[in-house]
Amino acid sequence: MKTMLKDVMFAAFALALCAAPAAAEDVKAGDLVISQAWSRATPGGAKVAGGYLTIENKGTAADRLVSVSADIAGKAEVHEMAMDNGVMKMRPLDKGLTIDPGKTVKLAPGGNHLMLQELKGPFKQGDKVPVTLQFEKAGKVAVSLDIQGVGARAPADGGHMMKKMPDHSGMKM
Q1: Three-state secondary-structure class, residue 16
Q2: How far apart are the C-alpha atoms of 111 and 122, rounded to whole Å?
Q3: How many CB atoms lie within 10 A of CB 111?
Q4: Statement: the pTM of the whole predicted model exceeds 0.90
Q5: Nearest CA-CA partner of 47 in 115, 144, 108
Q6: 17 SS3 class
Q7: DSSP class of residue 2?
Q8: Which residues, other chains included, contact 45 with Cβ-Cβ below 8 Å and sequence gap of 6+?
Q9: HSE (CB half, 13 Å, CA atoms) of 61?
Q10: Helix, strand or coil for residue 113?
Q11: Please, which pLDDT band fits residue 53 given cuts at 50, 70 and 90?
């Protein structure tokens, strides 16, 4: 009886592993490790999408994310969202985003993020969208954004609806 229970538990565990969506690969560039790169699926006709990822600086000197580019977007920028007199405002970070030594910076919905504008096509769940990050020291780094469901809050979120966070997928600029 115990052997059969173990077999059933093992089979259930193996099935769960197979059913889990593939996660983005970590990308190493110099002292930086870029992980959890993702975006949301966009409805047809959407011209804007956000990109999210985590950057860890394992070195002893700061580096700076100075720009981003993507073939699928006519324009791509590093953006911040911040409160200004009680109003949430979004703007490009013209001087880039500093990643201090020994620190981790997370680009996430509602905060710093990649803004992909003038999209040339929709982002479809399950796809991978290549982007190029330009760092001051680490140079150009190719990363793929794993496309999650329209309402995803994080990579492999299963499409749960986002709460109290802006969704750029339907914005027209």
Answers
A1: helix
A2: 23
A3: 14
A4: no
A5: 115
A6: helix
A7: H
A8: 122
A9: 7
A10: strand
A11: very high
